[in-house]
Design brief:
Strand content: under 5%
Radius of gyration: 23 Å
Distance between the termini: 34 Å
Low-confidence stretches: 271-279, 488-497
Number of domains: 1
Order of helices and strands: HHHHHHHEEHHHHHHHHHHHH
Strand order of the largest sheet: 1-2
Mean pLDDT: 85
Number of strands: 2
Helix content: 55-70%
Length: about 500
């Protein structure tokens, strides 16, 4: 005897619709990461102010937390818990040390804020991993993410116009509109999209767009029905993303693009797991892939060079070897302005060597910066000189500006190992998908591997737990592995999500 399932109540349907709307808005709002209209209770006093936090709060109440309490969850989620415990313990121990406030900010305040950013990041990862319930909903989620970033790319393209040909009235007009998206003004020589600065925009493109679009182009897999010969929506978005990325003049972002393009063409396009067991790839195929990688490198290099002619500082990448009489590698990095970044990293590593087990607690690197600063002539790095010089206008604490060094200095070797174990667990999910015989699963595996590579490269130049980029990557990989391993059949019609 079959028991009829009771029809959902009107309230349940309303809450389900509200949850779906919040999920869409969460994905569409991802490009806005320094939203000016955010109350202090939600991080309004920080640099990282993701607009997606508003729909995220709705999703936590209506979807994520109920799911955690009542339904099975991917085991990969549990691998993040050891790091959360270590980071909390390290931060709690820092409260026992007698540390004077810096810039009027005490250790308890700084620790609480840092733990809240970790909570936001964990909430983003968990929500992205749990919200899609079927493969169709997973694909729909990626389409909504593309929709949000299409708006960001359009806004970045409008900014690129004044880079190519500057017009003061046009720039000031865009400046007025930018105030609704970001807490920082536009740059006259670089584009920043809807973010705080150009590097943030470049990281968004290289982490949240390039891996998924490149995997689609390499595999011929598309989330959209429209196709004209070999041209797909993903190919058009990829080309658009590359051009816009070039005008951010972000060295880290463009380096990540080059690595992903070369790695994608050589490794992922030539690998066919279903045939690998029967025969090795012919030498001719590998030579062809290397030739294609060379062509891709030339095309991307041309785009970057053209954009670089509009920015003298960015053009230093290739000008150094002609303008300097005795060029050398160390001088090259100093010429590019990496001296301050090396100092931040060296100081963070010095902090780690003094507190190797659990570090100094999340957010507390700034309190140890002065005493662990390497003995270097500060006049050679004006940026560092400004930081260590008392100034009434300075109101933000220094950070390592490198995610790996931050993990080491603030959570020690134990915290670093715990977080890397979590990344390895996500990497394992991507590898399992990539080695599958299913075209759908191989797509998600390829995109996931490229996304993790992008995270690994991007983590060299950012250090925030609150930026959604890496958490969205990890969440999509976890969700895809969980859904396909659960043998959930795709719906015949795509979800409205």
């Amino acid at each position: 005897m079959t028991v009829a399932t009771p029809a959902p109540s009107a309230l349940s349907r309303v809450l389900a619709s509200l949850s779906r709307l919040a999920w869409i808005l969460f994905l569409v709002f991802l490009p806005v990461t320094s939203f000016p209209f955010l109350p202090p209770a939600l991080g309004g006093g920080t640099l990282v102010r993701p607009l997606s936090i508003y729909p995220l709060l709705i999703l936590l109440v209506l979807s994520t937390i109920p799911h955690l309490l009542r339904k099975p969850v991917p085991k990969t989620l549990l691998t993040l818990l050891p790091f959360v415990c270590v980071a909390t313990a390290a931060s709690a121990l820092s409260l026992l040390r007698d540390i004077d406030p810096v810039l009027g900010i005490s250790v308890p305040d700084r620790t609480l804020r840092a733990l809240l950013t970790l909570a936001v990041g964990g909430a983003i990862y968990t929500t992205v991993a749990l919200t899609p319930r079927t493969p169709d909903e997973l694909r729909a989620a990626l389409r909504w993410l593309y929709a949000g970033f299409s708006v960001a790319l359009l806004w970045g393209s409008l900014q690129a116009i004044y880079i190519v040909h500057y017009n003061g009235d046009y720039f000031r007009f865009l400046q007025k509109i930018q105030r609704f998206f970001s807490t920082r003004k536009l740059f006259t020589t670089r584009i920043s999209g809807m973010t705080y600065e150009p590097n943030w925009f470049a990281e968004q493109i290289s982490m949240l767009l390039i891996p998924w679009l490149l995997a689609s182009v390499l595999s011929g897999y598309s989330l959209f029905r429209w196709r004209w010969r070999f041209i797909t929506v993903e190919l058009l978005l990829l080309a658009w993303s590359v051009v816009v990325l070039a005008f951010t003049f972000s060295r880290a972002g463009l380096a990540s693009l080059l690595v992903l393009a070369i790695l994608g063409v050589i490794v992922f396009r030539s690998h066919h797991p279903a045939k690998a067991a029967k025969q090795a790839a012919p030498l001719r195929t590998w030579l062809l892939r290397f030739a294609e990688a060379g062509v891709a490198l030339v095309v991307l290099g041309s785009v970057i060079y053209f954009a670089g002619t509009k920015n003298d500082f960015f053009a230093r990448i290739w000008n150094y070897w002609t303008v300097k009489k005795e060029p050398n590698l160390s001088g090259y990095f100093e010429y590019l302005g990496f001296g301050a970044r090396f100092t931040y990293g060296g100081t963070a590593f010095a902090v780690y060597t003094d507190y190797p087990t659990l570090g100094v607690g999340l957010g507390n690197y700034a309190y140890y910066f002065d005493e662990h600063l390497p003995a270097i002539p500060l006049a050679e790095t004006p940026e560092i000189l400004r930081i260590v010089t008392p100034d009434a206008s300075r109101n933000r604490l220094i950070t390592p500006k490198n995610f790996y060094y931050r993990l080491l200095s603030e959570t020690g070797l134990v915290g670093f190992a715990a977080f890397m174990a979590f990344v390895v667990a996500v990497l394992g999910c991507a590898l399992v998908l990539w080695l599958s015989k299913s075209k759908d699963e191989r797509y998600w595996g390829t995109a996931g591997l490229l996304g993790i590579v992008a995270f690994g490269l991007g983590a060299i130049s950012y250090d925030s737990f609150a930026l959604p980029n890496m958490w969205v990557i990890f969440g999509l990989v976890t969700a895809s592995a969980w859904l396909y391993s659960s043998n959930i059949k795709p719906n015949s019609v795509d979800s409205d999500l």
